[in-house]
Amino acid sequence: MSEKIILTGDRPTGRLHIGHYVGSLRNRVALQNAGDYSKMFVFIADAQALTDNIDNPEKVRQNVIEVALDYLSVGLDPEKVTLFIQSQIPELTELTFYFMDMVTVARLQRNPTVKNEMILRGFHDMAEEGEANDNKKGLPVGFFTYPISQAADITAFKATTVPVGEDQKPMLEQTVEIVRRFNGIYGETLVEPQILLPGNSACLRLPGTDGKAKMSKSLGNCIYLSETAEEMHKKIMSMYTDPLHLNVSDPGHVEGNAVFTYLDAFCDDSHFGLYWPEFSCLDELKAAYTAGGIGDVKCKKFLEKILNQELEPIRARRKEFEKDIPAVYEILRKGCEVARQAAGETLAEVRKAMKINYFDDADLIAEQAKRFA
Q1: Domain that holds residue 87
Q2: 244-300, pLDDT tens digit by residue?
Q3: Closest CA to 109 of 135, 127, 130
Q4: Number of domains comprising the chain
Q5: CA 228, CA 191: separation in Å to the nearest integer?
Q6: Which residues does the chain have with pLDDT short of 50?
């Protein structure tokens, strides 16, 4: 039976937020503790972050440690998981170079994730000619080819499972295409990965506190894992709810109501016994809110208690790790050593399959010597 291996990671463009947590981080910790996988690689995608932050490398540099602290504070254990930094594994760059021959420009242009991220980051359309004007930024090639780079990240470690959010599904589909094309040309070499999405539909794409479709660092509508209870209180109290729910007695709407979406992602029946014994489950609360008579502030305070219960252990662990930052860098350094070895083994197999392992192929050298004798 082949090994079961997990690979996943995040861009260090800012601290991680509760959207990352319910979308992937919480599940990573559960997978780590379940022990169903022989290896688990979790990386900080600094090289990918530079594709749209090339003029601000200090932003990426500073956030590498922030993401590392978030990883450790949520419960990822370096004794069970290999934590590493993407840019420190040069084998990934070489794999990306080879995989570029497996994908057409037209295929990359059709990738929905690339399109959406282009819009979010203000890059102009790929079909436009000339230099970017004052209002539009040109699209970096590195950003455009991110799906190829991600395929290298995944296949380098022979990942069988990639736990990510729903927005990354097109990226995984592209990785599978690259694997199949490579194996079809060069023989069975690479492992085809499968995506692992959160089981709770509310966790697939947590909206921002402003009710917009996605919690995003660039939109400033996040609740960060590392922020204080006081900072979180202000954000929860200003959260988007139901614009038609003007009075407590008015019927409320839970659809599109960010507070209830967050409750779907975080709340379970035990929370009612602790914080709101008037109800036994979330469905009862939703029914009462819909009928009228439940105020938004009361719902927000309930959510705040639930989030504090979830996040307080994370905050406490982070404070402990912050006391010894050199030790955190040492964890990452050791993880990079393990990751380089694993990626190097895969790269050697790729070179052999592509017949570019010239100096390792004794038969080739002997054959050529005989040919010219």
Answers
A1: 5-205+325-368
A2: 898 999 999 999 999 999 999 999 999 999 999 999 999 999 999 999 999 999 999
A3: 127
A4: 2
A5: 42
A6: 1, 127, 129-134
Which parts of 275-364 are beta strand (E)? none
At 125 the pLDDT is 60
Task: Confirm if 219 and 14 have CB atoms less than 8 A apart.
Answer: no
User: Which value, to the nearest 10 degrees, does the dihedral of the CA atoms of residues 44, 220, 235, 24 take?
Assistant: -30
What the block records as the tokens of 78 is 């370096």
CATH code, domain with 238 = 1.10.240.10
Structure tokens at 186: 């060069």
H/E segment holding residue 219? none
> Which of 101, 194, 210, 196 is CA-nearest to residue 145?
101
End-to-end CA distance of the chain: 46
Tokens read off for 106:
């037209």
Q: What are phi and psi of 372, to 5 degrees?
A: -95, 5
Burial of 167 (C-beta count, 10 Å sphere; 0-12/13-18/19+): middle
pLDDT for 124 equals 63
The rounded distance, in Å, linking the Cα atoms of 97 and 94 is 5
CATH number for 348: 3.40.50.620
Spacing of C-alpha 146 from chain mean position:
14
pLDDT at 202: 65
Determine, yes or no, domain membership for 74. yes
Within a domain: 200: yes
Q: Is residue 211 part of a domain?
A: no
Q: What is the pLDDT of residue 132?
A: 46
Contact 219, 212 (CB under 8 A): yes
